[in-house]
Amino acid sequence: MEQQRQITASHMVEALTSWWNLAGLDAVVSDQTVNWLAIDALEKSVEKQDFSKIETAAPAISIATKSLIAWPGDIDRLKDMIANGADLPGNKFGTASLPAVGPAKSDIVIVSDLPDADDLASGALDGGASGALLNKMLAAIEIDLSACYWTALATTRPSTGEIPDESLPQLTEFIRHQIALVKPNAIILLGSSACNALLGEELLKSRRILGKINHDGISMPVMTTFHPRTLIARPSLKAQAWRDLQMFAKRSEL
């Protein structure tokens, strides 16, 4: 399936102009040194924050080691089950469930950690501030977010704003199940939790190169970058994210 769409010159100018603001040209340059080794810790701390201050999550719930419900072999069925609160991995941390967004067949799968509070308020994984920023980021490299399959490790939000460590193996297995159904040509990982789950590496190490992920005997390019919520909280990192996007845009040349 053709993933990247042709856009007009005016749309290109608009996308690039928007991205230059997103990439940090609107931020003041400082002579202070930056502790880049602390960024991954920052990423994890930002993941716990609720920027919209909306109380939507239920108290933390203990996680069973394995769901009793068979995992569906169809993406549309899987989305329906998640939306209806089925006992699937990551779908019982809170009371509001947000399934993946995007088509069942896509060239690009995007994986993040969990919904933000404003996503839950909007009723869609891409409905909050992070989705709006990600849409602009991808448009700058001629990728339509609505044509991508975007899912999260957890489809509900724990009251702590953090995924329990003991649930990560099952959540990772469930994400790989979805990847097998979608059959993408490339993967984008947003944030440290998604990076650790799918690659077993820290974000700062993996995002320096365009990596490869092997799934069902197929090798595909994978880009890791900061979650949009981190870029909202720390605009100085937008220039780093822009370099990640440029690298991903050239994936077919590698």
From TrEMBL:
Source organism superkingdom: Bacteria
InterPro entries: UDG_Type-4/5, Uracil-DNA_glycosylase-like, Uracil-DNA_glycosylase-like_sf
Gene Ontology biological process terms from the UniProt entry: DNA repair
Keywords associated with the record: 4Fe-4S, DNA damage, DNA repair, Hydrolase, Iron, Iron-sulfur, Metal-binding
Keyword ATP-binding: no
Residue span(s) of domain Uracil-DNA glycosylase-like: 99-246
A Pfam family recorded for this sequence: UDG
Keyword Iron: yes
GO molecular function, one term: metal ion binding
PANTHER family: TYPE-4 URACIL-DNA GLYCOSYLASE, TYPE-5 URACIL-DNA GLYCOSYLASE
Name of this chain's protein: Uracil-DNA glycosylase-like domain-containing protein
